[in-house]
Predict the structure of Amino acid synthesis family protein.
Amino acid sequence: MREPIVRKFVTVVDEIFHEGGPPSPTPLKRGAVLAVIENPFAGAYVEEIAPFMDALRPLGLKMAKRLVDALGGDPAVIEGYGKGAIVGTGGELEHAALWHNPGGYAMRELLGGAKAIVPSTKKVGGPGTRLDVPITHINASYVRSHFDAVEIGIADAPRANEIVLALTMSTGPRIHARVGGLKANEIKGEDGLR
């Protein structure tokens, strides 16, 4: 399968100092990197699509590196992650599922073998479609303080024959997180959950 054809990349970073309470001494950084690619399966049902996952792997690593760089360049400061995809109307939801493996494993590899499953979301839509991409802690999905999301979308994408691929990361818990649950410093690291 041929390499994905990228039309453009978009990178966004939020720096959050407070959510109405006292300012944090260290702002939370939350970011997303998006790639708009041609959907090689748009316009027709294709039975065997799985080989495209291998073609997406180098793009996943490139995107993960771009996002870490945008968040300061140090993978050690990344505490949360997620992924998502929006398929243009000429494709089908299953085309977004091709991103699960290459997007998730790229971030886990770049972040030193993070243990938690990478949360994900996907949908079919036209240009300007918005998607809330979930974020959880990179080593334990039950760390409640890191449950978050990044809203992504691009005004001119996806066109009918495109897919928007997204990776998201954060540098810590929500600002003013205080609803209890497993704390990051209590992670056992045995199963990616706790």
